Every structure is written in structure tokens, then in C-alpha cells.
Amino acid sequence: MHICVLGRTGYLGNKIIDALIKSNNQIICICRKDSKSEKKFKNEKNVTYVVSDYIVLRDLFKDMRFDCIINASCTYMKNARIDDVVESNLIFPMRILSLAVENYYGINSNYNNYSKILNHNDKQLRFISIGTGLPNNFNLYTYTKKQFNRLGHFFSNEYGMEFINLELENYFGENEPKNRFLPSVIEKLKNNEDIPLTQGEQLRDFVYVNDVINAICLLVNKKQVPPYMDVPLGSGDAPSIKELVTYIKRIMKSKSNLQFGKVPLRPNEPSSYANLAMYNMLGGKIEYSWKEGICKMLQEEGIL
Fold first, then answer.
1. Which of 48, 50, 235, 249 is buried deepest, with most CB atoms within 10 A?
2. Which domains are delineated in the chain?
3. CA 182 to chain centre
4. What is the per-residue pLDDT across 126-168, written as a single tens digit (0 to 9) for each?
């Protein structure tokens, strides 16, 4: 298969590429002009890097029809500029989606005079976007993700393209960036440091990254899907933050003092978990509970 991937340099994008390579797919990664991806990953087989330049991308989508496009481009709110969040989560993927739709369906530049080059029964463009299970208006990150999905919904209605919004809960795995929640907690537990936390009453679904990659591969290879789908994905279970951190402390035998209540809760802090009915209907199955996933991660990192 010919697959286009956005967000190669991120943790999840890295895992996605590794899985796609093992299945002998031909992969195009679209990167920013200042990205060092091509030099960093230059020895990869079946992977080509393309700079995010309008003329280059326009020619790319004119010359190649992808079986699937995966949007793993993402910038979170923490320590990020507002324009970076908007560019990464909304503008950049919108540009790619628009170019892909325009060339896949043969749409003329004049919006009132477009024509489709595919019959309704022919193979459609499939676009898988890594979204979020958090409430749409929780912060700028979730809001920009929602706005992008609205465009995907419009295009699916207009042209019959297959747009899949993967409503992903909190994922975790070995060798995550240290600034993410679980790695930062685990690092402090290893060093027996005090850990300031909220009251920890909010419920959150944590899913092991291997299950996330399996889900994405399933969606890439699924023969038939509806024009538009929201697919919630998590472990299907939502411990409280307090239960989660207390469990990790216990299995690590850490002496850290968990200072619940020292950090104020953000306004409208949500609880969130995935309803797996849609994923199960597609033939997907979660292999790891959140406890099993955490044990697996800690074992892989040599902590347990």
C-alpha cells in the first residue's frame, strides 16, 4: 500500500512508521521545512520524505494516489505557542486534506464547477486522523482537533471519502518523552521524590501504545468503512489519577510522598474514557488493561 503520514517526528508517529514498515508498505512522510527527519531516519527502507511546501505537495498529490493518509500531527498546549498549536493541529492537516481531496476527486479550482473522477462504487480516499477523547472545547488543542474533524465530516458528505476520527484517550508506552505525565511521575518515583498532584479524583482512560498501533493498522487495512466514523479508543476502563499513581508507586516500591491536593485542578477538568463498541464492531480488541500495560512498559524499561 502507498501511505502518507503526517507527524513523523512525534512519539506516536514514530511507532506508526515502525509498524507500517514491517508490513512492507510504501510510505511518504510530509515534514516541515526545518525538520531533521530525513537525516535522522535516512536509513529507513520504503520511506520517502517530502518537505511541506505548497508546490511540492500539489505535485505530489497530482502524481500519486495514496491508499491511506494518516494524520498524527499534533502539538499540545503545554509550553507551546498558540500559533504552533493552531498550525500543527488544524492548518497543516487541513492543507494536506484539501490537496488530497482536490486531486483525488478531480475538483477544479472553481468551486462551482467541480467534477468527480470516481464513481460512487470506486475506491475512496481514506483519511485517518488521530484526534482526542477529551471534550471538544476543553482547551485550544481539543478545539483545533474538533475543527479539523468538521472539515473531514464535510468532505466525507460531499465526496464520499472515508474520514476516520480516532478519538484517542491517554496513551503511554516505553521511551515516551519525559515531559509527559506518566514518564515524569515514574521518573520521580524512581528517585523517591515528593510528587505534587491534584486531588486526583478525575477519571482518565489510559491505553498502552501497542493497542493504539494495532488499532491504526486495523483501520488502515479494513476493506470497507462508512464515509465518516468517530472511533473512541482507550482501554475501556478509567481509573482515577489517584488510583493510577498509587498503583505505580506500589509496584515500583517507591518511597515518594504523593502530595494529593497540592496542585489546583484546572477549570472544568474532565473525566474521560472510551466506549469501545465501535472499535469492537470493526473487529478490534484491546489486548492490555491499563495495569497490564503499565507493567509491560516498566518491564521494557528495566524498572520492574
1. 235
2. 2-168 (3.40.50.720)
3. 17
4. 999 999 999 988 899 999 999 999 999 999 999 889 999 999 9
